[in-house]
C-alpha cells in the first residue's frame, strides 16, 4: 500500500517541481501517440468508409482482417517494424530505428485497424435511408458523405478514443522500436518498465499515474466535443 | 451539422502539424553509434554515468540497447550494433571465433551471488557455487531462473553442468525476464536464484532474499567490450566501435567504473580490469 501512496506523492512532486525529464517524457508520449492516432485516422477513415459502403470482392475478408487487427499485439507490430528498419533491413537506409518517427509508424500500424473496424461499424449503423434522402435532396457525393460522417460522429469520436487508448498504453512496440533511449525515445510506459526493473516502484507508479492523467485529459477533451455537439441539436 | 465534421478535421490537422513540426528537432546527423549491452549495466545505473562522459570526450552519441547478452551478441552478428559490452565469456569466445567481430578486451568484473530465503531449506549457505547448486537440486527447492540466454542465465547453466544436474521439474522455474523481475519473483516464491551483485544491491531493500553463496571464483562476472567490424554488415561503424572500446578501457573511464556505486551503496559495484588478464582475476 505504502508504495502506491509514495507513487502518488512522487507523481505530484515530479509535476510540481517541473522535473525536466518527466515533462520531456510526458511531452514525447503525447506527441508520439497523438500523431500516431492522427495518422491512423487519416488512413483508417477512408478505408473504414470504403469497407462499409463499398461493394467489391473481398470486402468481408478485409473487414474480418480489420476486426482481427483490433487485437494486434504491439510486440508483434514492434518486431515487424524493427526488422524492416534494421540497418540490414529493406528500409534500413532511412535510419529511422530508435527514433520517435519509428514509434509513430509502429503505433499507427497498431491503431489503424482499430479505426477501420470501428469506422466501418459507425457508418454501417447509420440508417441506409439517410443517404438516399440526402441524395434525394440534391446533395452531391461529397456532401452526402460529410453528412453521413456527421451523423455517425459519436461512434467516430469513440473510435478515435479507442485508437488513442491503444497506442498511449502500449509498451511492447515502443520499447522495441524506440529502444527507450533517454531524452530521445523514452515514453511513460517504457520509463515505468525501466523504473520497475530498477526497483524504483514509487517512480514507476508515478509514471503510471501521469499516463492515466494525460489519457484522461485527452479523452475528456474528445468526450466534451462529442457530447457538446449532441446537446446542440 | 457539418461544423462537427469540420471540427474533427481541424483537430486532426492541428495534431498532425504539431507532430510533424516537432519531429526533426533532434538536430543534424551527429556521429552516433549503437551499443548493445546487458540489462545489468542499465538497471544498475552504470550506463547513465558512463555514456555522457564518453560523448563529452569523443563527440560520439550512443544509442544504448540494454538486452540480454545472447541478444546483444546476435545484434552484433547481424551488424545491427557497432560495439558490445557483455558478460558471457564462453559465448563471447565462440562469437569472436566466427570472425565478424574485431578486438575483444577485458573491461571490468563484479560477481554473481546465489540468493535464497533466509530459512535456506536446501542448506546451501556458505557453500561454493557448484556445491550449493547441487544441494538445491537434491532438495528440489524452488529455483527461479532467468531463462533468457543472458550472461547470468549462461552462468547458471554452467554451474548446473558442473554440479552434474540437468534442472527440470516443478521446482525449476524459468521467468524469461530481466534480473530485476526475476529477483522479485524469486522473493515472492521464497526461491533461490542467481543474480549479479550490482542488480541485487540496487534492489535489496525490497527483497526478502539473502546472499547464501558468494566469493567463489566460479561466480566471477566478467565484462568484455567487443568491437564489431564491416564483416558483420556494411553499415557497421568500426571507427565508433574502436572509439568506445578504447575509451572504456582508458584511465578516466576505469576511474569512473571504480567509483560507481560508492555514493549509493557505500561500496563500488564493479572492479575495473582494463589491461589485466582474465586468468588473474579474483585470485
TrEMBL record, chain A:
UniProt-listed CDD domains: TM_PBP2 (cd06261)
Membrane topology value: Multi-pass membrane protein
InterPro entries reported in the protein's UniProt record: ABC_perm_TupB-like (IPR049783), MetI-like (IPR000515), MetI-like_sf (IPR035906)
Transmembrane regions listed in the UniProt entry: 32-54, 61-86, 98-123, 144-168, 201-225
Residues of the ABC transmembrane type-1 domain: 26-222
Pfam families to which the protein is assigned, alphabetical: BPD_transp_1 (PF00528)
Record keywords: Membrane, Transmembrane, Transmembrane helix, Transport
Compartment annotation: Cell membrane; Membrane
Classification via PANTHER family: PERMEASE COMPONENT OF TUNGSTATE ABC TRANSPORTER (PTHR43632:SF1)
Membership in a protein family: Belongs to the binding-protein-dependent transport system permease family.
NCBIfam families per the UniProt record, alphabetical: ABC_perm1 (NF038017)
Protein name per UniProt: ABC transporter permease
Originating species: Pseudonocardia humida
UniProtKB/TrEMBL annotation, chain B:
First and last residue of the signal peptide: 1-25
Domain PBP as annotated: residue spans: 25-251
Listed Pfam families: PBP_like_2
SUPFAM superfamilies found in the cross-reference section: Periplasmic binding protein-like II
The keyword Flavoprotein is annotated on this UniProt entry: no
Keyword vocabulary terms for this entry: Signal
PANTHER family cross-referenced by the UniProt entry: EXTRACELLULAR TUNGSTATE BINDING PROTEIN
Protein name as it appears in the record: Substrate-binding domain-containing protein
Amino acid at each position: 500500500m505504502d508504495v502506491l501512496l509514495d507513487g502518488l506523492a512522487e507523481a505530484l512532486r515530479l509535476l510540481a517541481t517541473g522535473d525536466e525529464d518527466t515533462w520531456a517524457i510526458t511531452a514525447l508520449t503525447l506527441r508520439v501517440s497523438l500523431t500516431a492516432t492522427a495518422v491512423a485516422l487519416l488512413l483508417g477513415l477512408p478505408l473504414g468508409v470504403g469497407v462499409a459502403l463499398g461493394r467489391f470482392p473481398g470486402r468481408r475478408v478485409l473487414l474480418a482482417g480489420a476486426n482481427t487487427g483490433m487485437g494486434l499485439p504491439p510486440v508483434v507490430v514492434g518486431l515487424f517494424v524493427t526488422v524492416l528498419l534494421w540497418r540490414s533491413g529493406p528500409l534500413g537506409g532511412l535510419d529511422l530505428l530508435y527514433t520517435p518517427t519509428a514509434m509513430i509508424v509502429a503505433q499507427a500500424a497498431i491503431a489503424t485497424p482499430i479505426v477501420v473496424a470501428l469506422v466501418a461499424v459507425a457508418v454501417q449503423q447509420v440508417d441506409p435511408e439517410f443517404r438516399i434522402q440526402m441524395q434525394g435532396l440534391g446533395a452531391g457525393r461529397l456532401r452526402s458523405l460529410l453528412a453521413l460522417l456527421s451523423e455517425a460522429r459519436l461512434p467516430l469520436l469513440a473510435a478515435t478514443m479507442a485508437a488513442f487508448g491503444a497506442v498511449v498504453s502500449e509498451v511492447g512496440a515502443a520499447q522495441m522500436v524506440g529502444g527507450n533511449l533517454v531524452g530521445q525515445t523514452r515514453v511513460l510506459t517504457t520509463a515505468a518498465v525501466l523504473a520497475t526493473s530498477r526497483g524504483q516502484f514509487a517512480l514507476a507508479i508515478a509514471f503510471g499515474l501521469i499516463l492515466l492523467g494525460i489519457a484522461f485529459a485527452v479523452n475528456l477533451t474528445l468526450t466534451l466535443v462529442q457530447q457538446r455537439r449532441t446537446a446542440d441539436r | 451539422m457539418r461544423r462537427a465534421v469540420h471540427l474533427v478535421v481541424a483537430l486532426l490537422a492541428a495534431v498532425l502539424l504539431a507532430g510533424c513540426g516537432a519531429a526533426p528537432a533532434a538536430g543534424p546527423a551527429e556521429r552516433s553509434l549503437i551499443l548493445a549491452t546487458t540489462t545489468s549495466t542499465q538497471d544498475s545505473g552504470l550506463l547513465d554515468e558512463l555514456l555522457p562522459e564518453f560523448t563529452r570526450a569523443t563527440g560520439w552519441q550512443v544509442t544504448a540497447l540494454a538486452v540480454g547478452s545472447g541478444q546483444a551478441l546476435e545484434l552484433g552478428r547481424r551488424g545491427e550494433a557497432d560495439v558490445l559490452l557483455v558478460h558471457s565469456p564462453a559465448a563471447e569466445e565462440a562469437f569472436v571465433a566466427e570472425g565478424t567481430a574485431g578486438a575483444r578486451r577485458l573491461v571490468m568484473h563484479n560477481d554473481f551471488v546465489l540468493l535464497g530465503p533466509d530459512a535456506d531449506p536446501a542448506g546451501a549457505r556458505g557453500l561454493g557455487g557448484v556445491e550449493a547448486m547441487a544441494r538445491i537440486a537434491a532438495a528440489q527447492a524452488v529455483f527461479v531462473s532467468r531463462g533468457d540466454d543472458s550472461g547470468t542465465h549462461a552462468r547458471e547453466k554452467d554451474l548446473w553442468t558442473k554440479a552434474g544436474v540437468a534442472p527440470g521439474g516443478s521446482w525449476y522455474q524459468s521467468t524469461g525476464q530481466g534480473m530485476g523481475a526475476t529477483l522479485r519473483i524469486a522473493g515472492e516464491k521464497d526461491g533461490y536464484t542467481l543474480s549479479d551483485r550490482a542488480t541485487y544491491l540496487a534492489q535489496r531493500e525490497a527483497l526478502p532474499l539473502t546472499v547464501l553463496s558468494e566469493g567463489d571464483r566460479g561466480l566471477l562476472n566478467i565484462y568484455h567490450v567487443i568491437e564489431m567490424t564491416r564483416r558483420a554488415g556494411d553499415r557497421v561503424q568500426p571507427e565508433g566501435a574502436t572509439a568506445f572500446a578504447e575509451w572504456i578501457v582508458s584511465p578516466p573511464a576505469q576511474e569512473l567504473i571504480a567509483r560507481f556505486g560508492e555514493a549509493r551503496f557505500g561500496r563500488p559495484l564493479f572492479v575495473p580490469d582494463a589491461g589485466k588478464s582474465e586468468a588473474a582475476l579474483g585470485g
